[in-house]
Design a protein that fits this description.
- The structure is a single chain.
- This protein is α/β, with parallel strands linked by helices and 155 residues long.
- It has one domain: Dihydrofolate Reductase, subunit A (3-Layer(aba) Sandwich).
- The chain is built from four helices and ten strands, in the order E-E-H-E-H-E-E-H-E-H-E-E-E-E.
- The strands form two sheets. An eight-stranded mixed beta sheet has the order 5-4-3-6-1-7-10-9, with helices on both faces. Strands 2-8 form a two-stranded antiparallel ribbon.
- The longest helix is centred in the N-terminal third of the chain and has 11 residues.
- The radius of gyration is 15 Å and the shape is globular.
Amino acid sequence: MFTMIFACDTKGAIGKDGDLPWRQSSDLQHFKRVTMSKTIVMGRKTWDSLPKALPGRRNIVMSRSSHDDIEVLDFDAVLALGEDEEIMIIGGGEIYALFMEHTKEIHRTIVHTEVEGADTFAPSLDGEGFHLIGERHVQAGPRDEHNMTFQHWIR
C-alpha cells in the first residue's frame, strides 16, 4: 500500500530552490509521527536536501545512479515492496506524480501562506477519487512560521 505525505502552501507549492520554503516545527513533528518505523521513498533531490538518513525508518531513494550512503531502488522494485507493506512516499514532485495512481492514502498539510517563486508542486487531488476523512486546524506554534491545516485523505 502506498501513502503520500507532504506539506504545501495554499496554491500547492512544496518547494523552492531545492528546499522547503518554510520552517514548520509542528509539521515536522507530524511527519515524524506518521512515518516512524515505516519505509520511506524519495527522489534523489529530496535525499540531497536531507542532512542524513531519517532515523527509525527504512530510507529508499529512487535514482538512476547508485549511491553508497543509501539504499537505491527503481520504480518496479518499490511497487513490489508496496504489495507487502505500507510505503510512505515523501517526495519530491516527480516521485509524487509517479505514485499518484497507486496511492490509497494522503496526509497533506496545508501551510497557510503563498510562496513567491516556488518551483516544485504537490500533485492535485482533483478528480483522483480521494475523500477527506479528517482535518485539524493548528495555530502556528513558537517554532512555526505559519498556521496550518492537517488533512487525511483516502480512496
